[in-house]
Amino acid sequence: MYFRFRYFSPQLSNVVVNCLNPFFKVDCKSGRILNTDDFKYLARKLTHGILNKEMSHLKEDDSLQCNDCQNRNKRVH
């Protein structure tokens, strides 16, 4: 189970960071993230929350992978 987590985590964190990047830019009108520490905290918190939820729904023989459907769902949340 740990190996699945270790390989899935970087993929998921990339998706989360890509979703948060527009809020970190200077020209963001609403919901702007002001500093790097807040950005890192949010990215880490969201990644761990999504990972915990995915791991709770995982069966023993399932594998974790980032697909387009999951990416769209994470962008919505």
Automatic annotation (TrEMBL):
Record-level GO cellular component terms: chromosome; nucleus
Cellular localization per UniProt: Nucleus
Location of the Set2 Rpb1 interacting domain: 11-70
Coiled-coil stretches noted in the UniProt entry, renumbered to this chain: none
GO terms of biological process kind: regulation of DNA-templated transcription
Family matches, as Pfam families: SRI
Keywords, alphabetical: Nucleus
Recorded GO MF terms: histone H3K36 methyltransferase activity
Family matches, as Gene3D superfamilies: Set2, Rpb1 interacting domain
Chief location category: nucleus
InterPro entries assigned to the protein according to its UniProt record, in alphabetical order: SETD2_animal (IPR042294), SRI (IPR013257), SRI_sf (IPR038190)
Database matches in PANTHER family: HISTONE-LYSINE N-METHYLTRANSFERASE SETD2 (PTHR46711)
Protein name: Set2 Rpb1 interacting domain-containing protein
